[in-house]
Amino acid sequence: MDRLILLRHGKAESDSDSGDDFDRRLAARGLRESADMAAHLADLGFTPQIALISPAARTRGTWEAACGAFAGAEARFLDELYHADAGTIRRAAESVAAEAKTVLVVGHNPGLQELTLQLLQEGAAPSGLIGRAQRNFPTAAAAVFLFDGARRPHYDGLFFPER
Predict the structure, then answer these.
(1) pLDDT interval class at 10 (50, 70, 90)
(2) What is the CA radius of gyration of the chain?
């Protein structure tokens, strides 16, 4: 893996028909912002070969809205990504590192934001950038990192949806 894209799911409905958090679907805004963010990433050349996705309804919906921009990406739904912490997300991405140059993870906060902050700090990103990511990592936000030969992360982009 040369590049890792962390994509937070789009804006979800506040409740589900079942009452279960896992079943909350994307709101109309979430569908739009997810598709827009994926198109923006693809326009920048950030296209994954493998997408690792939490199986929750809102992350599945995010992938469905985004996948058109990432033609040819293989989707894998991983139970362990549902509300995963930063370490679990990183291990999941590293587990497919030999299979793809670019890996996308579609998941949840706080784990995605925590991993974004860890990778920014490891990559010695400017404090202003770290502060920005620490203050806010909204729905449909994306963080992109390159990895060098020593597996050190380097900031490659932090993108927030237009509202």
Answers:
(1) very high
(2) 14
